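User: Fold this; tokens only.

Assistant: Input:
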Amino acid sequence: MKNILSKLWLCFTVLVLIILLIIWLFQIGLLNQFYIREREDILTKEAKKLSSIIVDSEGSNPASNEVIEEIQRFGTSVHALILVLDKENNVVLDVPDIDRYLINGNETNKIDKRLSTGILADEMIISYINEGRSFTIHRKRPHPRGLEASIIVGVPIVDGEKVLGNVIISSPLYPIEETITILKKQLSIISILSLAIGTILALSFAKFFTKPIMKIIGASKEIAKGNFAVRVNHQSNDEIGTLGETINDMAKQLSKIEALRREFIANISHELKTPLSLIKAYAELVKDMNSFSTKDKEQYLQVIIDESDRLNHMIEDILYLSKMESEHMDLTYEKISLEELLDCIIDNLVFFAENRDVKIMIVAKSKEDIIYADKDKMYQVFYNIINNAINHSYENGKIQIKIFDTDNKIRVEVIDDGKGISEKDLPYIWDRFYKVEKSRKRDNNSGTGLGMSIVKNILEAHDFKYGVESQLNKGTKVWVEIGLKEASNKIYCSEK
């Protein structure tokens, strides 16, 4: 029995059995004692009540109408034998023979004789009566049905300190035994029906509870196979509903990651293919040429070198992202001239800018030129930002790089007047593999979607603030705020 349905069904069934066993324990094991104690209490209270009624009549007439009516009412309701004795232990009243009682000596003697072999013949009862004590005893005597058990209760009739007589009530126990026997039969039938119904309900409840779990298991298996479109349709506010929503969210995230992975592989394949093709073509050209001039040869070799550098740059981006995934990145702080760093980047990108007729200019208004950061990483930051600005600028466009002081920080803004970014795309440009123009034909300047994600991680590692502002067809502004607090030349491990 390994599946959860069988386990739940077994648990519910066992629970029903335990409840039925508890009911049997109390109803069968304790019911008899409970009924006997209840009957004892009823008989004792009634005997005290009769004693009180007789005392209120000042004991002059124990056979008053009030006493007779009470004896008839109670004796009929509980099938009890009631005796009222005077102080000499003579029977004054007798139920069920109360309708033929007489106060003359002959009839009284008849009653005494009839009862002499009964209750008043019991030496224990006589001893209690003589001592003037209340008593409750159980007795068994021969009967055509076998031994008949009965409860006998005695209460003295006391007026002050004077004992006027006794009230004795005897009630057979066979009605209780018959009632218990009937209850046992009923309980047996109810137990069998309850067990059958409980088993069926247990199976139904088990199926009800396990159905959403089986859906979740099925969805998880589909997700494991790569089917990220599967969803768990279970609407509830409990833990199972929360688990279903979590599975759905996981499927959505995995679907997104898978789409990004495929796009990344496609982008990388394209980006790697172009430089490799150029390198191969120019290498074969250089190998086979005999009449080319030294200038042409150097130009072709420079193309090979440039494309090799481009390949190396892409590989570094991929390795850098891999290092970020492993939450490990070292920063080496040093003094850097910000303008010199930007001039170097512009010199390296001027060829691409000129091909698009884009002008780049630096507007420096900062009093402070030296920053403390990892030089290679900050080079990569501004290289990616400026390169993006070139790629998204129109022909004959203009890029301004503004440097100025603000709140004890140096703020660098790279502003272009190009295509801009839509409001719906703006929050996602820092995500890995995200490319604003997904449908645009990829050319040699097309990126891999890693650049701005790298910028984000480097700046966060330095604890520098950054942001972007843009409008479609009006241009984009990317800004970076660099703190001026000097750092020692130590290696710092950044937090992701």
